[in-house]
Design goal:
With 537 residues, the chain is an alpha/beta fold. The protein is 37% helix and 18% strand. It folds into four domains: 61 residues, no CATH class; 78 residues, Dna Ligase, domain 1, CATH 3.30.1490.20; 196 residues, 2-Layer Sandwich (D-amino Acid Aminotransferase, Chain A, domain 1); 94 residues, no CATH class. Strands 1, 2, 3, 4, 9, 10, 11, 12, 13, 14 and 15 form an eleven-stranded mixed β-sheet that branches. One of its GO terms (molecular function) is protein-glycine ligase activity, elongating.
């Protein structure tokens, strides 16, 4: 009887042992240990089937189309914005920074005082996948110049090589030309072998104890609906051996840990290949402050501000292009170099930055970065789910807010319904403007008074002709409360169209004044969908 009872109890025991969730999934080894500890501390249970869709958090090194297709917006957290390559590939970053600068300069330099000149923070670069650009590079190259050639998507120094003389450049040119002329290659939809950039090598870097270094900082996009961005300090990465411009050893020129591990000296000096920001700040105060006329704590003050400004411009360059859903979040590694004149340069931005802990400094900083990344993403997500005000953030400590797109009253209060999510997106595009714009909308955005039935209005506007009505073009990703028609001359349409894709925060300083000072007529139409922005040519 006891055996029978025991046998009968077994199915019930198994049933009670079934995990109830919430569940989390981790794909890959980068930071997996830290992520596992964090999630289990929340009482969550780990799953190992990548195809399961019942997770609350999914953190993957490699993006998968099915993951984004099956993602439940407003119910799940998913690491990595699907098209973050706009920032995190060499070609993506270069192209978007160029486009943003070109558009902003066409409007007015005086109306954009905070716009950074790309030449002041990004090394001169050329794309090798565009014939005109690579021909331009081969034309301007002078012997003895040093350039660095990088694959667009690789990280950890993979595929990088230096061009140090005319012979090396001629070899590259010949190789690219032979590939171009290959009939099989011409049929390929994506020219993978040429997906590279060449970048002018910064040959006079600031040195620490004779060694080249760069600084890894973090851009955290904790939420995309609304946008919530944060800046986080990282660490300083140094080479194992002293800097020598003439050396062909890449471990002299590339500072990342992946490359430094290839140096035979790494195991002996690895603790000296990573410095904390505090140590770096003290070193600059001691060695360079008086000699270079720097203010005290230049690293933690002026340098930090410059990094923030550069990150912000990079974000604004892609802000209207990133895929945004409630639950998407991202951590991006940003690498900066300081030259001997203390000029700050952005080298690149990296998706899925390394979260390994090879030395004491990394063991201190990486857990802080990982834990607060999840803390902030989760706190913001939960507050939006519950309809609570987002600010203040109780768990914000290491990261500093860089940008927020919430309403002036502390944030929108949506629920998980699809209707509310759509409303949240519409509200985001409206409330990301300044409080002044939000509380006192310009006349160009106000609904005009209805015409009196017995007589014309003071400033009658002619109805658009049928020909004009056929040229109404919708810009689907701009959402405003009512449809507004802006009469724009056809010859200026190409200039204005990219600007109308921006949200009010970027437009408030030049779009509205431009509309008003040019006396562009504005009208509204109740027959048009409220989420369409109409450009009348």
């Amino acid at each position: 009887n006891q055996k029978a009872v025991s046998g009968a109890d077994q199915p019930e025991d198994k049933k009670t042992e079934e995990p109830l969730g919430p569940f989390f999934y981790i794909g890959g080894a980068n930071g997996a240990g830290l992520l596992d500890v964090y999630c289990k501390s929340k009482g969550w249970q780990r799953i190992h089937d990548n195809k399961r869709e019942d997770y609350i958090l999914k953190w993957c090194e490699t993006k998968c189309r099915e993951t984004y297709y099956n993602f439940k917006e407003g119910e799940q957290l998913l690491y990595q914005i699907p098209n973050n390559k706009l920032l995190t590939t060499k070609i993506g970053l270069l192209s978007n920074l160029r486009e943003y600068e070109r558009v902003m300069n066409k409007i007015s330099k005086t109306l954009n005082p905070r716009l950074l000149k790309m030449e002041d923070f990004f090394p001169e670069s050329y794309r090798l996948d565009i014939k005109d650009e690579r021909d331009a590079f081969f034309e301007i190259y002078e012997d003895t110049q040093i350039w660095i050639c990088k694959p667009t998507s690789s990280n950890q120094g993979r595929g990088i090589f230096l061009l140090k003389n005319q012979e090396a450049v001629d070899v590259l040119q010949s190789k690219l030309q032979s590939i171009d002329e290959d009939p099989i290659y011409k049929k390929l939809p994506y020219k993978a072998p040429q997906a590279r950039i060449v970048q002018r090598y910064l040959h006079r870097p600031l040195l620490l104890e004779g060694k080249k270094f760069d600084v890894r900082s973090y851009l955290l996009i904790a939420c995309t609906v609304p946008y919530m961005l944060f800046f986080g300090h990282g660490y300083v990465r140094l080479t194992c051996i002293n800097y020598n411009l003439a050396s062909d050893d890449l471990t002299t020129h590339l500072t990342n840990q992946y490359m430094q591990k290839k140096n035979p000296l790494y195991s002996y000096v690895k603790e000296e290949t990573v410095w904390s920001m505090e140590r770096f700040n003290s070193y600059v105060n001691e060695k360079y402050r008086l000699a270079k006329g720097l203010p005290k704590d230049w690293v933690l003050m002026a340098f930090t501000k410059r990094m923030k400004d550069i990150m912000m411009q990079c974000f604004l360059a892609v802000k209207s292009k990133l895929d945004c859903k409630l639950g998407y979040f991202d951590l991006i590694g940003c690498d900066f170099l300081i030259d001997e004149d203390f000029k700050v340069w952005l080298l690149e931005m990296n998706a899925n930055p390394a979260l390994h802990m090879n030395c004491a400094v990394l063991k201190d900083i990486i857990p802080t970065v990982v834990n607060e990344t999840l803390d902030l993403a989760l706190e913001i997500f939960n507050k939006i789910q519950k309809g609570q005000k987002i600010l203040p953030l109780e768990l914000q400590c290491h990261f500093v807010m860089l940008y927020n797109g919430i309403a002036p009253d502390g944030g929108p209060r949506p629920s998980k319904s699809k209707t509310s999510l759509a409303s949240l997106r519409n509200q985001r595009s409206l409330t990301e403007s300044s409080p002044h714009i939000a509380q006192n909308p310009p006349k160009a955005m106000e609904k005009p008074p209805k015409r009196q039935p017995n007589g014309p209005s003071e400033n009658p506007l002619p109805a658009p002709s049928k020909a004009r009505q056929r040229t109404l073009l919708p810009v689907s990703h701009v959402s405003i409360q009512e449809a507004v028609c802006l009469t724009i001359p056809a010859n200026l349409y190409d200039v204005w169209r990219p600007l109308l894709a921006q949200t009010p925060r970027e437009l408030e300083s030049f779009l509205i004044p431009a509309v008003l000072t040019n006396n562009s007529p504005c009208t509204s139409s109740s027959s048009l969908p409220i989420t369409e922005h109409i450009i009348q040519l």
